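Continuing the series of single-chain predictions for the mutant panel. This is the parent chain; the variants come on the following pages.
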Amino acid sequence: MSTTPTPSAPKSPTPESVAPGSTAPESTAPEASAPESIALPVTAVTCLEDRAHVERATVLDLTAGVHRLRLGPIGALAVDRTLHAELTADHRATALDVRMVRAWNPRGPQPPTDEDSPLRRRAHALEEERVGLERRRDRLRTRLELLGTLAGGLLREIGEGAGFGEAERTRWARELDRVDADRETSGEELRTVDVRLKALTAELGDVARAMDLAEEDPAELVGHVELTLETEAAGPVALSLSHLTPCALWRPAYRAVLDGDALTLETDAIVWQRTGEDWSDVRLTLSTARSALATDPPRLREDRLTLKDRSAAERRAVDVELREEEIGTLGPAPVLGLPGVDDGGETRVLRAPAPVSVPGDGRAHRVPLSSFSAAPRSEYACSPELSPLVTQVVRFDNGSGHALLAGPVDLVRAGGFIGRGTLDFTAPGAPVELAFGSRDDHRVVRETEESRDTTGLTQRTVVTRTVRLHLSRFSAPGEQGERVVVLRERIPVSEVSAVEVRLHKDACSPAPDTVDADGIARWDVPLAPGGRRTVTLVYDLSASAKVTGL
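Parent structure:
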């Protein structure tokens, strides 16, 4: 359950009263006579694909009448037109006006932190040294002035004593020597301080110019909310304020841990925000809604199809070509790079199970969402045409209770991080497939042969292709037990009747266990420790005489 925090301001603030029916004037900077600000903390956040919907709540103890309150500070990036205030009380309370007020708040000098750059820390050290030298220079100048006054008084005493016939040559010489020595020592120190100050001033100028080129202090813009409301009776009034703010986004991320025969998949959300304020212990909701996109349907355009007769040359020949085609499956089309949140075309909403805190530093922060365990089905698979590596592939069903959005997966096996994969959009209960890296103790070598022949009677062109797959397993001493490796090799699939594809099962050694409709041949090859196997695939491409391009 959510709780309504009590503002840090006094329980009974002293709001500024205005006449009924009038509105509070808009101000652009805080004044000395402005009312005290009442804290308005963030209690709930709905993070969208490129922005956030922020909710704030507090309780006000007001007297009857019209009040103008100053709430905040809040992030200055809040969108003004999305401000919405809602009042809840046992008596009638009406919000008359709500608006954002922003003011520049100059930053005072602050000592550098560990996160500051070495250039800024050097400037701070030079500035501290300069201030100390200026104070020492002032003390030396004051001392020299006092010594000059003392020397003048001593000379006046000598003149007066000589006039009266008093001769204290030893004392006068001793006092003059001491004053002259002090003046010489202080003067030398003053010259040393002046030289160092001059060098410091030059170095500080160089550092300042370098900082102007390399760093730029962000302007600190502070925002407040001015709320004018009317209450018909004294008592507490619950205030709820919501608005949109930019500079916040989230993306899904996962962590798959394979431990023996069990797999644990953890679903997290990576949240970035630099809205100008921290989110502390808020209820976090993650949504894939795209409020920035227009909702108008696309315009229909005219699409004309025209037919024409084939020429005599086109009737005599059939032009064919071999092309690569990816096997399509149900689901959204993949997008390269860092796209928006892929939700399968339907808005998805995920909620953090516990209150979270996200600092407004613009860095990535991981928020746990859910976790489930499953008994996976594992196999060692290899497609030699694409890669000679034997990869451990794990399949399991999505038991998280919600859709798994497309995102990166950190793969952990045997207690260690082994790499990072990609998880496609997966509906609840749908199968999931993850690759947990390759096996270094397996090696596959692929060899291909091709022969071309033309029959004399029908003038058909026959292309015979032979593919040999040499599979080896390198095992450590004492290792026992067979391991089944799934080999997959593709066979061309013809789309025209003039070209036929035929598999020679008698010539294959061994024959494929299965061949699906997409032309993917599969073998389940058992390998003992240190074993070797060779798989042979033979098929024909037969085309009539009028086929060209084969």
